[in-house]
Amino acid sequence: MKFRAKIINKGFVELFIQVSVTIAKLTKVCVLRVCQDKLCFGPTGPRATREARLWCEVSRGAFYQFNMEGVSEELNEIYLELTSEHLSRAVRNAGNAASLKLQLTNKRRPCLTVAVELASRTGHTHLMVHDLPVRVLPRRWWKEYPEPNVQVSDVSVYLPGLRTLKSIVERMANMGENVLVEANLNGKMNLSVETDVVSIKTYFKNLGNPPKSALSVTQDRDPESMVQVWVENRKLLQFFEGQQINPTMTLCNILSNTLLHLVLVHEDVSLQYFIPAL
Amino acid sequence: MLKCEMNGSQVKVFGKAIQALSRVSDELWLDPSEKGLALRSMNSSRSAYGCVLFSPVFFQHYQWSTSMKMNDDDRPLNLNCKLGMKSILPIFRCLTSLERNVEKCKIFTRSDKCKVVIQFFCRHGIKRTHNVCFQESQPLQVIFEKNMCNNTLMIQPRLLAEAIVLFTSSQEEVTLAVTPLNVCLKSSSEESMDLTNSVYSEMSVDPDEFDFFQIGLDTEITFCFKELKGMLTFSEAVHVPISIHFDFPGKPMALSIDDMLLEANFILATLADDRSRASSPQSLCLSQTQKRSDLIQSNTKADKSGTSQAPECISRKTAPKRLYSRESPTNNPAGETCGNPQTKRANGGNIFEVPESSLSDTDEGPGSPYLRKAAAENN
Fold first, then answer.
1. Of A2, B85, B264, B343, whose CA is between 20 and 30 Å from A39?
2. Chain A neighbours among B 54-113 (CB < 8 Å)?
3. Nearest CA in chain A to B344
4. Is the pTM of this model over 0.90?
């Protein structure tokens, strides 16, 4: 098994740092799946249906150099389990790095080696090397960490500005534990929280809907009708506070009373967060 | 009696010194003498000592006079002033605004009332007075012949700071490994061996980057990172290069900055080498005593103020392996092997190839206790 990847573009270095920090905030231990054309970060541990789950992909295009050799020819992938905090700490201060290299190494134990190259003012380069301990997962466990399947959704809508959303969700979190998220096919989305004494509802309109995919169900749904899902405010807040990426595209898919699926995309990175209904 | 005066920018440097010393311990000695005003601090485990000596020319105005009563052998008395960091640190908070607003700062002592008075004369006619009570306590002093060390490095603080920013902050101890051709800073190997789940980091600095580079002894010393960072911040603030003096593991090392106006020294204990005898406090103490007694003799001859009495030696009383106490890791993955140790070199020493046999081969499924706990904590 071999893996080596290098980023030399400053923008992608920053993006990778944002991805690492986001993952560290959303999941303590993550599984890094090295595929031929991308890196996937997913959660670890047994699947509990009540948990919110993260799935992040960084495509090969972000890397200047990307070489991998999987476990075998037919199963050309590598599954590594690591502590997300280690990765985020190792890259956190690398904003001015000339290059960032990831490599799977075997130094007394399997490690993901992160090498950050900084150019100093005297013309010398400083190379900082971190060996992050990883656990290489055997093939028979791979089925425990599947890629989330693309679910059918009842409605799909582009999200309003993330900063606005985050501050609204923060304020709502003070009011109640559960929030109702609803959207319709006319580009409208509402967030509401309700207690015995007060109810707050925020209306967003003119958000736009992504083009209908073949998977979306209920073609004959009235475009004005709202598709609803109740979720725990805490989980929603954790996502907005944790994520560090400045996405170019954000949208959410709602499966009525079942799932809230948030998607952020920025260049070669996509971040998905699945929050189950209450 | 101590009486001294500073302007705004001097207050900033003074405050920075206090901040650097606060990383060593919670107590600060104010030790004035004819040589100037010394600020001293030593931590409770006696593994770190810091001293910043401001010479009289640093201040706008400096006056030190001994009290009327002298002790038996005609040596003038010290101020013997010990302050809590908690009382004095907040006074020198927000140094940039202090620098801007303070026109004059007066510090004087009233030993009859055991008080230090710090007065800030600020813009717009505002005067701020702080009365800090002190405890009578003889300051501790450590004599360290840094010029006798085999290895000396001097570097511009900015360069070193840029280099060490990449070190992850979880590391308490770092190892400095030097040869005449190379200087390398890395995580202490003791730390990374204890926990299978810790990160090992390493970084080299080119000898050319140092203003002064003298390595007489190839060595690796391990010391506390926090104190290096503290001294580095101070050194950056004063724009003076920082010097590192050291020898073999176990012997204390010195971080110092030397300027016309001030001299700062941080003496740190280093981890003794396992292979050599366990750090023998006795011998270390003795040599210090000898040096000390020499110093005291010469001091009394020249009739200078012999400040300290029985300075403590820098060595740990017991021989623990750590500079700081550490709790055992709570989630030690007991039932888990992170790779089969026998296959270490099975692939012919090629560290860039991870053989399949290094896959975790425990019988436990994906939800091992360690991970289950982590996952449970996650949500």
1. B343
2. none
3. A108
4. no
